[in-house]
Give the backbone structure.
Amino acid sequence: MTTPDIPLIDLAGQQSRIRDRIDAAINRVLDHGQYIMGPEVGELEEALAAFSSCQHVVSCSSGTDALMLGLMALGIRPGEGVIVQSFTFAASAEVLPCLGAIPIFADIDPVTFNLSPDSLASAKAAADKAGIKVVGIITVGLFGQAADMDAITAFAEQEEWWVFDDAAQSFGASYKGRPVGALAPLTATSFFPAKPLGCYGDGGAVFTDNDEFAAIMRSARIHGMGQERYSHERIGMTARLDTIQAAILLEKLAIFNEELEKRQEVADRYEAGLADMIATPRLGAGNTSSWAQYTITLAKGTDRSHVQTALKEKGIPTAIYYPKGMHQQIPYAMYPVAGNGLPVTEDLCPRVLALPMHPYLDEETQEYIITALRAVLD
Ligand SMILES: Cc1ncc(COP(=O)(O)O)c(C=O)c1O
């Protein structure tokens, strides 16, 4: 039998399904020629606002820029501290030093891999000790499910902090019946191609019900421009979503709900085939997931690279999100850390392993992956 070539995320499968519609959408943009801020940008923003029950969606050039724009709307100032989980993609923390602010690293809940509300008090204590005034919390919807937003929001309200949700991975999920995008005063997402809702390049968006925040971000994404061309109201950046990407996203959004259901079916099949022998992902109370990643946790002492190599030999790719906490990365090592280190983050980093996950993973291929993984772990 020849070794199959299984993708970790199958973008080609999705593209072949809607290629005609994508071609037509791109052609419409080529015909009207409004490559920057063309009509599809506004259409997409309206469609996303309806999808996420939000008043305003400000599209932009990446998930990282979405975080930057949101922080600008919040009026973050140099020297202010923001609590963020260490177990995340760099961008969740990186945007803070980019604007002169300071990440305060907190630990995660061992079940959901998301910010632990129990870590907030010790993160605040670490900031206090370093003389840093905390102003907010960036939550992350890691691997596809939202953090415990009620508990985190309650803590933030008590401290008069804001909450900004980094939903680059969790857009499409819900928490206690509310869609991601409407769980915090500001939510950022990414349309990086591999994300649950991805375009064919870089893209992102910020969601808010706050009129003032929306107006600041709309201005900041075009160099701080005011109502009149070349009158500038603030320092901004160039952070617009290309019209072609908006046109592609409109087509992808049309099948997004169906794809989310298919992702759940894939997750269910992994659960049925693996849960008796390995720690499979768990959802927090009231959560659905967009299953951006399907991450299993290997038993302590398992040789992860051996597992990866054995699977690779059978044509099965895996990935490690993330090999280290951000507090263990050299450029971030100087920033305060909650408590005496982050034991949950440090325990999980060497044990996590992401398996192929996408809506087009068929039952037969998944059975092959499950059988191969069981054989390696046996
Ligand atoms: C949690 C998280 N935040 C932010 C980002 C940044 O998104 P982008 O790559 O679109 O800038 C990503 C992208 O991988 C992410 O996973």
Q: What stands out?
A: The mean pLDDT is 97. The longest strand covers residues 134-140.
